[in-house]
Amino acid sequence: MEVAQSVPMSLSRVAAVLLAGGKGERLGGNTPKQFLELAGRPLYHHSLEVFERCAAIASVVLVVPALPFDLNCGPFPKVCAVVKGGETRQGSVAQGLLGLPEDAEIVLVHDAARPLLSAGLVDSLLAGLNSDCSGTIPGVPLEDAIKKASEEGFVETELDRQQVWRVQTPQAFFRRPLEESLRQSMAAGREAPDCSQMLTQSGYRVRIVPGDPLNLKVTRPADLLLAELILKDRASTEGVVQ
Ligand code: CTP
Ligand code: MG
Question: Which atom of ligand 1 is nearest to the CA of 114?
Fold first, then answer.
């Protein structure tokens, strides 16, 4: 199933799909988490700002819960389409892919709920995307001991934490295997919680590159506080450097 890619990276067009179409139920409240204010701006703007800074990214498709959507596009000229998401994350990925420019050959899929991504992480995902794999994803090693337990809560097996990873977004893929594995996942009635699962289930090879432990996903209220603290710390460090 693995297909060698013949497009040299330097000639490939990279587009990002930013998923901001969820309801944010675990965080609670009336406003979906991606539209809450974080460090002075809407949470999803943090990702758009990083995409604007990444020279490799040519265009961005923004996936939102409903249309019309009032995006002040001024600061984000790379946003080429705003589309309505689906009922599930996978459904929103499908909608986002429909908004891609025709010439996009590499697609970066990112959760707007991860506002702390860095341009460096995007660069290392793209650098790792070679002819020997169809996608690259950021993985962070686990520091706790990992156990497999029975439904009753009794430890059954010790897992080797060297072999398991916490996986984040953005995730980078060649467009054709991404679209093909999405088609297969939908046809089989599967719902993949992240895109790399669709690819591996379809037999494509996905490489893990070093992720960033601070690239957290805002899921519950405490994550918002943490994200705010990390951004404050970054701002003060940048202030010292300048
Ligand atoms: N997402 C989406 N469309 C959906 C579901 C999720 O675009 N139908 C997006 C979310 O906006 C988020 C990312 O996928 O940026 C990761 O999903 P998650 O953290 O689970 O966000 P929500 O589904 O919004 O939150 P919850 O599961 O707590 O309702
Ligand atoms: Mg969800």
Answer: 15
CA angle 206, 212, 214 (to 5 degrees): 140
Ligand 1 pocket test: pick from 23, 38, 89 the residue with the most ligand atoms within 8 Å of its Cβ.
89
CA 86/CA 28 separation, integer angstroms = 20
**Token pair of 129, please?**
């995307």
Residue 86 CA: nearest ligand 1 atom is 8
The arithmetic mean of pLDDT across residues 86-105, rounded, is 98
Closest ligand to the CA of 25: 1
* Non-local CB neighbours of 230 within 8 Å, separated by 6+ positions: 116, 214, 216
Distance in angstroms (rounded) separating the CA atoms of residues 155 and 82: 47
pTM: 0.94
Does residue 86 carry a pLDDT above 80? yes
Q: Which tokens sit at 97? A: 């892919």
Is residue 206 within 8 A of residue 135, CB to CB? The reply is yes
Rounded mean pLDDT of 175-204?
Answer: 98
What's the pLDDT tens digit per position in 107-143?
999 999 999 999 999 999 999 999 999 999 999 999 9
Ligand 1 neighbours (beta carbon < 6 A): 19-26, 32, 34, 63, 85-89, 91-92, 111-113, 217, 219
